[in-house]
């Protein structure tokens, strides 16, 4: 068996790496995963920070391109699409559409990611409960949903009349917000029907289903802790397959 083309550094916690698994599965590239242990602060080691000076995940190493290193999830999305999507299945070639695609990638990174992440922090990790902070970020999530819903009321996909990496970039945070960040009486189909239809189409893609199941098998730490309360040690005792290798990595 030949060596994998790529190595992706990720961790149990974090939502940004799922879209990269989706894209690599869609493109059929070979890759290996290195699962860092945040409890041991492996992402802060000198060795890892030679790859990613920010000390965060994800990080990609492209062994077929002189071990080129790329970090920041949407930068990795663009790199993978530019280098490996030779048929342009999930990207575009028209110059205006390229600019539109970049706009949505920046919007996801600068609006969706930080807003949804701050909401998660104040709901589950901040040492004191601050209802006004939670409400602020929940309202911002709804505002961002509204932006997407308005755009998607006029077209099926964000760019180029087809699914692209711009759409893939939003999947996991949207899914997480719908199920964990917004009030239990929130109904995305009723309040944002165009976004809901778009999200459902994305979730039905085989590569997305694979990535979701893979994340469940790894039992991503943040969701495990605050959704079902299973600790890392409890999970380690029952983990098998990919998840067991992840714990040992």
List the helices and strands and how they pair.
Blueprint (H helix, E strand, L loop, with lengths): L5 E6 L6 H10 L3 E6 L9 H6 L7 E4 L5 E4 L1 H12 L10 H30 L6 H22 L12 H4 L2 H11 L6 H4 L1 H11 L2 H13 L2 H8 L3 H7 L2 H8 L1
Parallel strand pairs: 1-2
Antiparallel strand pairs: 1-3, 3-4
Write structural notes for this entry:
With 249 residues, the chain is α+β, with helices and mostly antiparallel strands. It is 59% helix and 8% strand. It contains 13 helices and four strands. The chain has helices at 18-27, 46-51, 73-84, 95-124, 131-152, 165-168, 171-181, 188-191, 193-203, 206-218, 221-228, 232-238, 241-248, and strands at 6-11, 31-36, 59-62, 68-71. The chain has a four-stranded mixed β-sheet, with helices on one face. A hairpin with a 5-residue loop joins β3 and β4 (68-71). The two termini are 21 Å apart. The model is unreliable at 239-249 (pLDDT under 50).
């Amino acid at each position: 068996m030949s060596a994998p083309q790529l190595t992706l550094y990720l961790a149990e916690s974090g939502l940004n790496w799922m879209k990269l698994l989706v894209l690599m599965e869609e493109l059929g590239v070979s890759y290996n995963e290195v699962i860092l242990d945040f409890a041991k602060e492996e992402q802060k080691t000198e060795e890892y920070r030679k790859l990613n000076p920010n000390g965060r995940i994800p990080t990609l190493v492209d062994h077929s391109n002189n071990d080129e290193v790329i970090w920041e999830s949407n930068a990795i999305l663009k790199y993978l699409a530019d280098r490996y999507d030779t048929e342009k299945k999930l990207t575009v070639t028209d110059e205006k559409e390229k600019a539109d695609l970049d706009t949505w990638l920046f919007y996801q990174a600068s609006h969706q990611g930080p807003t949804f992440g701050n909401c998660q922090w104040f709901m589950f990790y901040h040492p004191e409960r601050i209802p006004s902070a939670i409400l602020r970020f929940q309202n911002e999530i709804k505002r961002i949903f509204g932006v997407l819903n308005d755009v998607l009321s006029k077209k099926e996909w964000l760019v180029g009349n087809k699914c692209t990496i711009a759409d893939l970039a939003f999947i996991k945070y949207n899914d997480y917000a719908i199920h964990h960040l917004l009030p239990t009486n929130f109904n995305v189909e009723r309040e944002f029907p165009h976004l809901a239809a778009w999200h459902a189409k994305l979730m039905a893609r085989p590569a997305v289903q694979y990535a979701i199941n893979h994340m469940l098998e790894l039992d991503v730490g943040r969701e495990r802790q605050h959704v079902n309360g299973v600790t890392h040690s409890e999970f380690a005792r029952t983990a098998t397959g990919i998840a067991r290798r992840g714990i040992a990595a």
